[in-house]
Structure prediction request, 116 residues.
Amino acid sequence: AQPYLKSTFEEVWDYAGERLTAVSTNRFRSPEDYTQELFRTWQICRSNFEPYNTYKNTKMFPLILRSKQAIKAIYDQQYQLVCLNDNAHIRNYTQVMQEIEKAFKSILPEKSTFEL
Prediction:
C-alpha cells in the first residue's frame, strides 16, 4: 500500500476527469475501469513518494474473510495504514459496510477539508 497525496488526485482528475467520473459510477470494477493503480503510478512517475516498509504497522483485510477483524482494527487504531478489500460476494454486505462506516465515524468524527 502507498499513501496518496491530495495533489495527485487533483492532477489525475484534471487529466482524466471525464473517464474517472464515468468509471466511478460503477458499483464494482470492470476490466476497462481505471483503478487506484493509476494514482499510485502517477505519483511514482512524478517522484512523489517515500519508500517505506509496508509490512511495518500496516494491515490488509480481505473483507470477504476478515470483516470483523478489520472493524476491530479500525476502532482500536492498531495500524497506521489499513487496506480494506471489498468484494461482490461479502456475506451481509450492507451490514458490513455500515459497521465499517460507523467505525470510521467513531475515530474520525469530523470531515476532512477534502470531503467538504
